[in-house]
Amino acid sequence: MIRGLASALAAFVLLVVAPAATAQKRIALTFDDTPRGVGAFFTMEERSKRLVAALRKARVEQAAFFVNPGKVQAPADEAVVDRYVRAGHVIANHSFSHPHLNKLAVANYLADMDKAEAWLEPRPGRRPWFRFPFLDEGGKDKAKRDAVRAALAERGLTNGYVTAEGSDWNIEQLTVDAKKAGKKIDMAALRDLYVETHVQAADFADALMIKTIGRSPPHVMLLHETDIAALYIADLAKALRADGWEIVSADTAYADPLKTAAPDVPSANGTLTELLAWEKGLPAPRWYERNNIALANRLFAERVLHEKAP
Predict the structure, then answer these.
(1) 3-state secondary structure of 217
(2) Residue 94's CB: how many other CB atoms inside 10 A?
(3) CB atoms within 10 A of CB 159
(4) pLDDT at site 23
(5) CB-CB contact of 77 with 37 (8 Å)
(6) Among candidates 172, 173, 241, 234, which has minimal Cα distance to 202?
(7) CA distances from 48 to 9, 122, 175 (A)
(8) Deepest of 5, 95, 166, 189, by most Cβ within 10 A of its Cβ?
């Protein structure tokens, strides 16, 4: 009797507990626009050192930095990229000059991408991923989109897609503007807004992806190499884990079958989560609410500057 109960319990564990374990939320952290110029608080060198230290403190073993080699104008700029690689992170292609595909001819766009790849390919830590600047795959121009997708495949590159984002670039710009204007910035509130926004963005993306593809994939969060990240990435990592997320490597995320996804929607300009949900016909909203810049600006004004938003 006891042996039979034990066997039944073991079977229950395999059926119930094991699937729950494999369904744990997973997310990789990625940073665009490396090397980035002077921000609200730090020089480029200070920011990169702080970001490396913060990622180490947060036990993020491998993040991905998407590089614009056109911004590498001096040895100090190159040193920023090398610093991330020495710390165990990886680098990938974000174009040479960060152009909009919908504003450029395909040949010119590919030439810009190839110029960046020539700089990246011989470097340690390089990965064969290309992230479209502005997540712009050609807007409504399907012919242009498909031409670039084919060109990526010919070059052995895959789409460095994003599944979750909270428009951190806007939080950074609002902070820069407030600093220049001499406004008092509530740093604790800034931290809380940044962290809360990105945890919510991850949860929104996961819920929508489960509705869309029936599973929780390893997600890819879009961040930027900003002063805000250098200050608060450890807080974000802690909050993500408290919310049930496991932080995984970019290598793990981009090994998922999603790497071959090529949604055919009227406009390929957004997160992969949004595009797949759109293709399946799921109703809006398919975009995390704080990517609405008017809403994000109001929250920043009210919570970080303690101003009444217009």
Answers:
(1) coil
(2) 27
(3) 22
(4) 55
(5) no
(6) 241
(7) 51, 22, 18
(8) 166
Euclidean distance between CA atoms 117 and 68, whole angstroms: 10
Read off the tokens for 69.
């080699």
Could you tell me how many residues make up the chain? 310
pLDDT the model gives residue 7 = 34
Q: Hey, what are 102's tokens?
A: 């919908």
Distances (CA, A) of 7 to 18, 24, 62: 16, 26, 40
Cα angle 125-129-130, degrees, rounded to a multiple of 5: 125
- Per DSSP bridges, beta strands 64-67 and 90-93 are parallel
> Residue 10 corresponds to which tokens in the numbers above?
């073991």
Phi, psi of 146 (to 5 degrees): -70, -35
The encoded tokens of residue 107 equal 């040949």
pLDDT for residue 251: 98
Beta bridge partners of 164: 221
Q: How far apart are CA 174 and CA 44, in angstroms?
A: 18
Give 10-residue mean pLDDT values along the chain (310 residues).
Answer: 35 32 82 95 97 98 98 96 98 98 97 98 98 97 98 98 98 98 98 98 98 98 98 98 98 97 96 98 96 97 90
CB atoms within 10 A of CB 278: 21
Strands 268-269 and 136-139: antiparallel
Q: What distance in Å separates the CA atoms of residue 266 and residue 298, rounded to the nearest whole number?
A: 30
Which long-range contacts (C-beta less than 8 Å, at least 24 apart) are formed by 283-291?
Answer: 286/208, 288/164, 288/165, 288/166, 288/200, 288/201, 288/204, 288/205, 289/204, 290/166, 290/167, 290/197, 290/200, 290/201, 291/165, 291/166, 291/167, 291/201
